[in-house]
UniProtKB/TrEMBL annotation:
One of its GO terms (molecular function) is alanine racemase activity. It is an enzyme of class 5 (isomerase). This is Alanine racemase. The keyword Transmembrane helix does not apply. Pfam families: Ala_racemase_C, Ala_racemase_N. Keywords: Isomerase, Pyridoxal phosphate. The keyword Acyltransferase does not apply. InterPro entries: Ala_racemase, Ala_racemase/Decarboxylase_C, Ala_racemase_C, Ala_racemase_N, PLP-binding_barrel.
Length: 346
């Protein structure tokens, strides 16, 4: 039985990046790479983005940052924001990865490790602007900035950036978060610091709320063509990945395809529209290793079915599938298992 394939269209990825960059300029794009580039493949994403001169890479953890560094060589700036062990911080310093710092404890470990190595750690200090998911509290900000300045004077640290993350639950909350963020930037600047990278927004806020953008915007979903759940289509942005499976049997006029719940397809997606050589058909059932799709005239074993994609064969997008089960497109993409072969166009 042929394996299902996740096909990633590199030209579409490039044109999404182009559309995102045009939209957010002069804010610089930091392309977010977490979860193996949202299931598309980190190496592929970094190579394609590097080819377009993307300067900033958001790696989440040090391990992915190191992988990105292998592809990038000396080029590019890599930002890893997961609080990491001493060994990982050591690796990050060697690979010249910028570290996101959201606690005083992490700051002092990084400072000590940089001092031991005789290098300057490049850090982006995170202010908690209301999400309560890692980040320094406004009450401890001034004290922490003073520590950072001391670390800079001792040549163990370089404050490259200040950042936070938005809830994107309501405009009012995001506005309040920005006020706290700008207060934090002001305190840093009054201390004489000159962080070049100020970043607050991810895909949705970067696209829709220009007034919230900093000098850098951290964007994952929209670059991969994953729109927000319950959000509109975006001009110039289309899904990069399509998931195909093969018809392996025909039963009672319906097509049995070789992909199922064990491959990461939620069984609750029954009823969704998938693509076939004859256009949209209903996905009738998802079993463990196979699924059943409403038949079409002339169907044959070996035909392709598009489980999701850009709609070229009548299939839904990953986000449209996700909306059926109250989740986000990223989740459909990132839960696909290793049995699914990843292929990319040049
Ligand atoms: C995932 C993530 C992003 C990117 O979010 P998208 O909505 O996919 O653009 C940005 N910043 C942080 C901290 C994240 O965890």
């Amino acid at each position: 039985m042929s394996r299902p394939e996740l096909r990633v269209d590199t030209e579409r990825f490039r044109s999404n990046i182009r559309a995102v960059r045009d939209r957010i300029a002069p804010s610089a794009l930091m392309i977010v790479l977490k979860d193996d580039a949202y299931g598309h493949g980190l190496r592929w994403a970094v190579e394609a983005a590097r080819g377009m001169g993307v300067d900033w890479y958001g790696a989440y953890d040090v391990r992915s940052g190191v992988e990105a560094r292998r592809v990038l060589g000396d080029a590019g700036r890599i930002f890893a924001w997961a609080t990491s062990t001493d060994d990982e911080v050591d690796e990050a310093l060697r690979a010249r990865i910028d570290l996101g710092v959201g606690s005083a404890e992490y700051l002092s470990r990084i400072t000590a490790l940089a001092a031991r190595r005789g290098v300057r750690a490049r850090i982006h200090l995170k202010i908690d602007t209301g999400l309560h998911r890692n980040g320094l509290l406004p009450a401890e900000w001034e004290r922490t900035i003073a520590e950072v300045r001391a670390g800079e004077a001792a040549e163990h640290l370089e404050l490259v950036g200040i950042w936070s993350h938005l809830a994107e639950a309501s405009d009012d909350e995001d506005d309040e978060a920005q006020t706290l963020f700008l207060d934090a930037v002001r305190v840093a600047e009054q201390s004489g610091a000159t962080p070049e990278a100020l970043h607050l927004t991810a895909s949705a806020a970067s696209w829709w709320r220009p007034e919230l953008r900093g000098s850098v915007s951290r964007i994952g979903a929209f670059c991969y063509g994953v729109r927000s759940a319950d959000g509109p289509d975006l001009a110039g942005v289309a899904p990069v990945a399509e998931l195909t499976a093969t018809v392996v049997d025909i039963v009672d006029g319906d097509a049995v395809v070789g992909i199922g719940a064990f491959d990461g397809i939620p069984s609750t997606l029954a009823g969704a529209r998938v693509g076939t050589p004859a256009g949209a058909r209903e996905l009738l059932r998802i079993d463990a290793a196979t699924s059943v799709v409403e038949g079409w005239p002339g169907m044959r074993i070996g035909d392709s079915v598009w489980m999701f994609g850009a709609g070229d064969h009548g299939e839904s997008s990953a986000t449209t599938l996700a909306e059926r089960i109250d989740t986000v497109g990223e989740e459909i993409l990132t839960r696909l298992t290793a049995r699914i072969r990843r292929v990319s166009t040049p």
